[in-house]
Amino acid sequence: MRLAANLSLMYGEWPFHERLLRAAEDGFEWVECLFPYEVPNSDWLTLMAATGVRWALFNAPPGNWQAGDRGLACDPQRVGEFRASVEMARETALALNAPCVHVMSGTLACWAGQSAGAPEATLRQHAQDPWLKNMDWLLSQTANDPIDWLIEPLNSRDMPGYFLKTQQQAHDLISQLDPSGERRIGVQMDLYHCQITEGDVVTKLRQFLPTGRVRHIQIAGVPERHEPDWSELNLPRVLDELRALGYQGALGCEYRPRAGTRAGLGWIKAHGFSGTMAG
């Protein structure tokens, strides 16, 4: 496993464009973030060359985040915007040699407007067809690219009405898009979201990691989303399980430090990671 510092949540004490440098100073060799687009690719490349830090993952543009957009994939009225967001993410991933891009699925708000009073399960069913069509287009357009396109179930407390809710739903949808396992699509399994929505995290890891569909894992303390060792989850048990299952991917540190990023980094060495952050 390799730890990836999340530059959107960690290192908030510094301007965004400086956070990769600060992560490198602390020994991180990999980083991730929500959206890297406010910094030009040329600037990121300069920072990467100076530090040796590499990108593990970032998100495709989600629409208008400030207005409440949380992705566009399930909205049939915004196909053009979805395709433009994919193209921007693709160009950035190729420029930065990032292996994974998370495509946010969107919320059910557009369907609630069309089906006033319908149960959430009904709205989710309505949203599934445009989601499948958009994602099929994405995978067809990028079939020759060295990019894994990931989807992530999110909990309803932090992301009300989000289309993708459970690990099983994510894997079932991928099975529809890619029954032969030949397309570059996978699951971003955030254990924070999984614990809040479903619990039974170790069993979920045992169920889904052997499929090969889980391409990126993220961790944070539950329920406050602080350091992973400040959590109702048993961090040593989770890390032992990941190692036992042979997980070799990135482990994204997508948490909000309780009292400053550097003050909270002690959990890394305390739980079996070396000074270079490599497991």
State the oligomer: single chain
Helix content: 25-40%
Total number of helices: 10
Describe the strand arrangement of the main beta sheet, using strand numbers: 1-2-3-4-5-6-7-8
Low-confidence stretches: none
Q: Overall 3D geometry? A: globular
Round the Cα radius of gyration to an integer and report it.
18 Å
Distance between the termini: 5 Å
Helix and strand run = EHEHEHEHHEHEHHEHEH
Question: The biggest beta sheet, please?
Answer: 8 strands, parallel, barrel
Strand content: 5-15%
Q: What's the pLDDT, averaged over the residues?
A: 95
Give the beta-strand count.
Answer: 8
What class would the helix/strand composition place it in?
alpha/beta
Written overview of the protein:
Helix content is 38%, strand content 13%. It is α/β, with parallel strands linked by helices and 279 residues long. It is globular, with a radius of gyration of 18 Å. The protein has an 8-stranded parallel beta barrel with strand order 1-2-3-4-5-6-7-8, surrounded by 4 helices. It contains 10 helices and 8 strands.
